[in-house]
Design brief:
Number of strands: 12
Strand order of the largest sheet: 4-5-8-6-7
Order of helices and strands: EHEHEEEHHHHHHHEEEEEEEHHH
Largest sheet: 5 strands, antiparallel
Oligomer: single chain
CATH architecture: 2-Layer Sandwich
Helix content: 25-40%
Shape: globular
Radius of gyration: 20 Å
CATH class: Alpha Beta
Number of helices: 12
Amino acid sequence: MNPFQYAEPKTLAEAVTLLDQPDAHAIAGGSDLLDEVKEGIISPVQVISLASVPGLIGIDESESGLNIGAMTTIADVAAHPVIRTAYTALAEAAGGLATPQVRNVGTLGGNLNQRPRCWYYRHPLIPCLKKGGDRCYALIGNTKYLCVTGGDRCYIVHPSDTAVALSVFDATVDISGSGGSRTIPIGQFFAAPGVDVTRETVLEPGEIVTGVSLPRPADLGANGEPPRSLYLKAREREAGDFALVSVAVRLAVSGGVVQQAAAALGGVAPVPHRATQVEEYLAGRSVDSVDAAYAGTLSIPDARPMTDNGYKVVMANNLVKQGIARLVGR
């Protein structure tokens, strides 16, 4: 491990100023950044801790919804009573993420900004496209964990569970940097390889995520109940593993009719994948006429599986089917 300078700024302004320097990296919980440093993937000159920056920790409820600070731990997100009730898919995604030890130190902002787990990117001796090389070595190697849609020269899958769940709640991401602050929809926060193969988000140098905002769900259900949602995750190990495929589904039902529907998948694309055809099929349909199996077949209509990952398409279809069936009570 190469030596680096460590700074612990006391204000947000100081943090973004330090991060605007070359080869400066922010550290939140540290579970991903330190892995990259130890593995020789990155060699930061400065590591900027966000631990002492005020206003980045906590979950605040208001009439408009929830604001979750970027330094709030994954464990706190999973345990929050309002999230468990009104944003169930997010609580389930956070609660099934990694291990208890990681959830206790890992943060929401860090989870959204973690780097891909592709074997070839993570190998310090392989100069892949994402590290400034001239080719994707995965294409002639093991494609089991790569994407089945959305790839463009690079075929990673986004590793964040919380990003998939936040996608179905129309969350927005609050960003601060040397040029000021901005708020963008979470669907615009992630950058596909076709936008910039070297990064996964639209963050500019010196910018950090300060929080995530969730709009209050419309009370469309019977007796003022919030929309129903869930998160399902298929993985090779029962605990502590990344998703082979994951699914978040949210339905708002009133009078026996699906008024709103949202579905997103993880593990299948370089960014959280919105299953728009599933959403269009469900919206405005009576619950009794919902064919969950058919809806599942709409999850990745443009799938282009590789040699070793065709199983992901089948798995995605079945998880969407299962999620919808649970939410409509069948």
